[in-house]
Amino acid sequence: MSIFVLHFRLSIPFLHALLAALFSISTLLVSVHSRADELLSVEIQGASESQQQNIIAHLGTPPQAPGQINSYIAKARERAITAMVALGYNNADISAEVLREQSPIQLVIKVKAGPPTHISVMDIHASGDAEHDPKFQSFIDEINTHQGAVLNHGQYESWKSQIQNYARSNGYLAGKWQHHELLIDAARQQAEVHLRYDAGLRHRLGEVQYLGSDVAPELLARLSPLTPGEYYQSSHLSALESSLRRSGYFADVLVTPNLDHIEQQQVPVKVALRDAPSHSFKVGLGYVTDTGTRAQFNWRTPRINRWGHSQETTVRYSAVNPYVNFLYQIPGEDPLTQTYQLMLGLEQNDYGDLSSTLRHAAVISQSTKHKWVWAAQTRWLDESWRLDGLDFQASYLLPGLTLSRTKRHGPIRDPEEGFMQTYQVEATDKALGSDGRLVRFTGFWKWLSRFGDHRLVLKGQAGVNITGIDSVEDLAPSLRFFAGGDQSIRGFDYNSLGPTAEVQTSEGLQTKVVGGKMLAVGSVEYQYYLSPDWRMAIFTDAGNAFNRHHFKPVQSVGTGLHWLSPVGAVRIELAYGISEDNPPWRIHISMGAEL
């Protein structure tokens, strides 16, 4: 026979902790039990919903101990009357009945509201500099429109607070009440409101002092939306704080008025700044079907010097599209809406059956006006490519203009409404040192809308190159048009669609995809939400890259499952090319924000 012996070693501290835990659990159980055993129930009869809510608020929480019941009942009628008076019912008939034989004891409050008290006189005035302030007077006039309304004591107190807060927020920092009075004639059910506020002298913004950063004063002045000497408004200080935070130069911003040092109605402002970290680094791993597994490294310096210059370097590796990109930014006259940029980059990519290596540089002037982003740029492109052992090379100087706008409603990871549009035009000529003449137009559109558990997404891409000749042989691959892939026509490989050419290879004459001078691609997608974080999709994509008079569209259909992760939708989709004699199919995996 086997005997198993279990040994337990219990220390004194452990026993104390165990007993304390058991005591806490028992106390919690008793507390829950007490709350479950209601001692007194309250019923209100004859009152409207708003009246009932106010009476309940004035009565307070029903008693939790037997000794508190009689006191609660004794005060109930008086508190109910006070609640009705607060809503303008000064002659309400209220009675309280106690049914002690009930379990729990029942308190019945019967209400006969009677006629309400109306405001017969609204006499509100603001003096001082406020007399000559149209906005202040308009604010007072808006309150005066309540004449004839049912009296509400809470609203009367709210008017007093609103007037005082408005004055202080708009520079009337020495304002004070001369008179405030609420007169009630209960017999006639009428009330008079008399308010007199002396706003005093209106203050203006004084000196703005910046502390804690060596950012150049000239740059801080350009970031500030404040105008020296303008009337003081607290909203202006909030706008200054928002502007400084949006610049990205600072980790923390605190803007406060120095009310203890006001001189000649000038309010000095103190701005405490804490610089953002000198450098930030991000490392990411991802996978999309077009380019396969990829790793990315990002290095950003939000402020290189006191004039606000910044840089961002991105290195990304994938088997299909590795690249390195360097961006140097200089703030413009309005640093939040205008920048000057210098961009340098090195990139490899596959376009159809072409393998390309391109080097590019650009000088860009970017600004935001009326929610549109305008970018005027001059781009230098040097590209070499290979087709079955044959090497080609071309370089271009491309002045251009880009115009874009994105409207979005709802969370970034899953917008409910949105419209993205981008347009670009570039042109060059041999007179500029380019290897050919070119005018290039491109456009991209994406629209989406959600209605209940349903969502519709429409996309379109278009482009045209005008070169003066029909052939694209001498045009760099990155300037040609191709279709196919996650962001184009699903069901087909990345950049696998477009015009072809017969190429003599070591294996004989073969057909190769070399791209076209034009592009037209569209997509319609319906999505249904299975849960807040999951949705399914069905879609069809169609279009192609082509040359003039040779448009041969292809089409695919597919379905997918989307997971709405914190960083955006992760999309797994299966697409099938229905326009081909030997229909291809492909699984697409992609992720990221949609707009």
UniProtKB/TrEMBL annotation:
Primary location: membrane
Subcellular location: Cell outer membrane
A Pfam family reported for this protein in Swiss-Prot or TrEMBL: POTRA_TamA_1
Record's GO cellular component terms: cell outer membrane; TAM protein secretion complex
Gene3D superfamilies to which the protein is assigned, alphabetical: membrane protein fhac, membrane protein fhac: a member of the omp85/tpsb transporter family
Domain Bacterial surface antigen (D15) residues, every copy: 326-592
PANTHER family, per database record: SORTING AND ASSEMBLY MACHINERY SAMM50 PROTEIN FAMILY MEMBER (PTHR12815), TRANSLOCATION AND ASSEMBLY MODULE SUBUNIT TAMA (PTHR12815:SF47)
The name this protein goes by in its record: Translocation and assembly module subunit TamA
Phylogenetic placement of the source organism: Bacteria, Pseudomonadati, Pseudomonadota, Gammaproteobacteria, Alteromonadales
